[in-house]
Every structure is written in structure tokens, then in C-alpha cells.
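Page 42, continued from yesterday. The earlier attempt failed because a stray header line got pasted into the input along with the sequence. Redoing it now with the clean sequence only.
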Amino acid sequence: MSASTEQVVLRSQHVELTVLPGLGARLHSLRVDGHELLRAPDDVRVHEDDPFFWGGYVMAPWCNRVATGPQEVAGREIDLASNFPDGSAIHGLVYAAPWQRTGAGSFAIEREGEGWPWRYRVELAVGLEDASLTLAQRLVNLSDGRMPGGIGLHPWFVGRPEIKINSAQTYGPNSDPTAEPVPVSGELDLRTRAAMAEGLDAAWAEVRDPQVELWWREPGQRAVWHMSTATPHVVAANPPERRAMAVEPQTHAVQGLRRLLRGEPGALALVEPGAALELVTRIDFDLRTS
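This time it went through. C-alpha cells are written below.
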């Protein structure tokens, strides 16, 4: 088996998670009491051919879309290439790169270049206990100057679970996000359990604990999310062609680089040399609920 298709299986009493270290330390499969909750391909090599729409993956050193081309930030020039049909640079630089396994449930990668003029380290530590999954992420600045940074997770959940996002503020659709968050309304108000509107792709700010809840009528399970960061953001997307829903915990809003340069809220953080940006997401599964 090649490094890119190595599978690391981690288990607790109710949860089984399969991680692919050679393909971004991505989450290939998440089974709760034997029921698959991720959009998992039968062949793990599909992740390499189509890295954005299967399983779950770490986004770093930024999340979601940023503009391409030369831009000066913190005294250095970023010059990112597009990796998405809309012309943006999306989801960072580590989502399909080979990571190292550093412990029983821990993984890491060190990177630099590709238009990003800082060296950095990204870490993922998986914790499983009974019916809970904890995903601890860190982005460490290994360079000698301040680095813009963001970190998040991009899982695709199978089917059409009902959702609750505990936020009264949204940046609106990700295709044209507002600079300042605005009060939620209409299909963007997900403070009570509901089906997400088909085709919706948006971001929410000031998300309160528990940040997200998901319900699957079949197999009758609920997932309750708790995020550690002081200013959590959540992106969610429900594309009709995927038969899956993305729910993404992250440290900043869409277009985080633009927000940093313009002084807008929800920007990438400026991480000091040797410092780290952290995001811990715990998902508690309630079994046999309705």
C-alpha cells in the first residue's frame, strides 16, 4: 500500500474514524454505531482525484476562498495560484499533501512556498471516547515574522441532516459575502432545527455554544458541536448535486485575507513567530434520537 492510501483506523465504543495521513490527514470515514456519516468514496484514491468534495479535511493556513495574485501582507508578498474553477485560491495548502503520523491519533505537516512566504506547521490530534469525537487543530508559525493564518475543518456529511446553527449574525452567501456581519433572516436563520435550503452556501459569525447541531432521521442520530475558539465561525453548504452537506468550523470568515487587508471583521489572524492558532471541535453523538 502506498503512503497516499495508508488508512489509520481509530475506535471508541461507538465511533470509528478512518484517517488518510498521505492525503492531507483527511477523514475518509466516520461511522457511529456502524452508520457512515461522511460522504466516503468506496476507493480512497478518489480523494486524490477529487479532493474538495469527499470526506473531511483540514484547511490551513487559510480557510475557504481568498484572492489570487500578488498581495503584500505583513511585509511579505503572497502570490497564490487558483485551484478552483471560480478563480480563487481555496481551502489552504495542506488538504491533499502528505502528512506524518506523529502518535496514535496525531498527525502533522510542515510546509512553505507555493506562493505563501512563511514556514508553518499544521497539527491534527484525534480523540475518541465513548460517543464523542474531538478534533484538535493547530497552526504554528515557524517563520521569523508575523504570518496571517486561519485553520478549520471541511467535513462532508452524507444525506440531508436537519441543522441548527446557534448564531444571530451572518456574512450571507459565500459567493458575495458582506464586509460586516448582518442579522440572520429567512433561510439564513438556522437558530431552530430545520432543513437547510437547497443550494445555500453561507457563513455565520459569533456562533454560541453549542455551535452546531445535526439530526439524521435515519439512522436516528444527533451530533452536537462544541468549538473552543473565542470567536468561532461556521460555514455551511448544501449543494443539490452532492447529496451531502458541508459544515465547517473555522477561525475566520470567508475572504479572510481581504478582511485582514481592509480591517474588516472575521479576518485572518496575525500569528506571531513561534505562536500557534488553535481550534478544538468536540462532537458529541446522541444515539437513537429523532
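Notes: The mean pLDDT is 94.
Reminder to self: strip header lines before submitting.
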